[in-house]
User: Fold these one by one.
Assistant:
Number 1:
Amino acid sequence: MAESARLVDLIQADLDKFVDGREQQLLAISPELAPFVNYARDLLGGGKRFRALFCYWGWQATTGLSTSFDPLAEMSTEQHHRNDLESVVLAASGLEMFHAAALVHDDIMDRSDTRRGLPAVHKRFEQLHARGRWIGNSAEFGQSGGLLLGDLLLGWSDELFDEGVRTLSSAQSGLAARAHFNHMRTEVTAGQYLDIHDESAWQHFDEADLLDRAHRVIVYKSAKYSVEAPLAIGAAMGGATDEQLAALRQFGLPLGIAYQLRDDLLGVFGDPSLTGKPAGDDLREGKRTVLIAIARTALATNSRSLLDELLGDPELTDQQVRMLQASIRESGAVENVEGIIAKNVDLARLALVDAPISRAAREQLLILAGAVTQRTA
């Protein structure tokens, strides 16, 4: 994983350099814009970089370069692929910037107070307003500031991604990667809306449809966006064939589902010292996940009614959180979800067995499959 670790360093360097450049622009407008820079830098300084890694290994899967970042290392493929490395890293950095924008907006919609152990961006703007004793409502100011910073990060992600695809040696590959990026943005936005829609309207759905709806949210809000799309973007930058793209998508979609299911378990049972969020945060936010849908079908009527009554209450006490956690465990939903995760990981691994991709990429993608589904944060 030395190559992946080196990639993470390069991504961070690109993000830092980009924000440094925009800092000059913003502060030239007004010193009051310093929070935009500071909050963005803090948010971009953390994370696991999974989307960037899948983008890079999607590219490696199709180019077949040797596993080295040394520009003097002997390569078995054409020189122009080696020169495309910087372009791929820039595009992968754009994906990380897009993810940061999505997190800011997601925290506002979910009413999340924390992110990676720090106050969420909108809460930081809220605190800024409160400390300054400014007129108006601090919470409303915080949401407005968070929305604007999220929009700014979204625009910045486009700039970074465009610089990456524009400097590729193959203009056709750049256009193909941009098409995948655009498609991803539409899907994740649609998935995000379906998430908040189903949280609000679930009582009007047939009981038999709740699990399918929760699965649909996973696919479009997270699975495609977190794994499948970054792989496709990277592969397209490397000039992937239709067969290569199909194989990587067959790997990416089930792995993305498993990734989000692990996230759902952590959202209910995760250790706050590792996740950077309060225990049972998804319970307070009212997430209608696959875990909850499965638990509801197994719970007795009284327990199901209590779960429905408490889920989504932002004032849940620690005792109520522990009670709901116990009910979900006793329903067998945790074991059920673990089984679904294992099944999807098996499907993902199976897709790589005869996939027409480079050996090094196959090995690293299998390692990543374990990393994204066996994590504790």
Number 2:
Amino acid sequence: MSGLGPISSRVGAFCGGMWRYWRSGQPAPESNYIVQKLYAYTDGRSNDFLFRIVESRRRQTDLRPGWEGTSVLSDSGRCQANTEEIVRTLKQDGVVVLEKRLKKETMQNLYELAVSCPLETRIYGPPETGSEPGTLITTPIAQTGTSRGMDPSQPRHSVYTLPRALLLENENVQALMCDPYLLGIAARYLGVFPVVTKPDMWWDTDFVPEGLRPRPFHTDSGCLRWLKVGINLTDTTIESPHFVYVKGSHKPNRETRLLTRRLTRRMNLSDKEVRELCAQKIVHVTAPAGSITLADTRGIHKGEISQCGNRLILYFGLEGSAFNNVDQPMPLNHVGSELAKAMNARPFSYQFFAPRNQESGSRRSV
């Protein structure tokens, strides 16, 4: 009976956190463990059920942003009519690519930042002797460090990551996080106006040892429903680092049920077992620079390691709920005009960003 203690305490924290979030909108990161297990046991149905409960107080008949925003995407006005088609594809497949949508000057600004600023670096180590390809739970790290900029023609590290604090100072990144076109798609898909989560941008290079490819698959957690926005700042090919997704795995279905049930015991799925059950559903998402991938990463997916070439990618989340989010508000030294309008209009949606003149520990109620 003594073994029941940790589980019962986690269940109690989950129930208390759900009540607190429903009443005040305060996230309950201690609930994430139970959310993960319920997802695996119910083939994802629990996420949708919990989402309907904890977000029932967010009465939002109008899903429009609520401010006059300027898009950093090209020809977004011309494509407004395609929003319904994009949402239909997301609901069916879980992933969609918006081809060459980022404005050229925005793309150039972010690229120049990524080759010139201080970067955090990692070098991958070789896999353990005897390990089966596509089964590594974590990628072995041989070395970490820093670098002043990056030369794409001669990478010396496996991964170069921009510090998030520096990334958040960039007004193009801030503008993307409140882009009305992207927010509009997410709102239609989720049924509520999204909560924006912190961006990350990094280089994946081909400076990697033999034997790390293929990577295993996994599903994301830390939320109930969401879209991940991936912005390609370099061309991606089947040989370069790229996103791989199992179409339709974001919703309960017979083909992937055996795979999601295995997540009750472990966090990753081997490349082999995914291919054995649903090889015909696996898509390799490759696209030119400036393209934007929208994906429901509750579905089975992975980022593939490079065979040849580099990738610069910017990611951030548009989430339907902050219930089990594990992040803390991050201070902003500078808030651009576009982001300021968004934060004033939708404080709950930007609760994970705190201007320096605001108390960093405060939360926005529903």
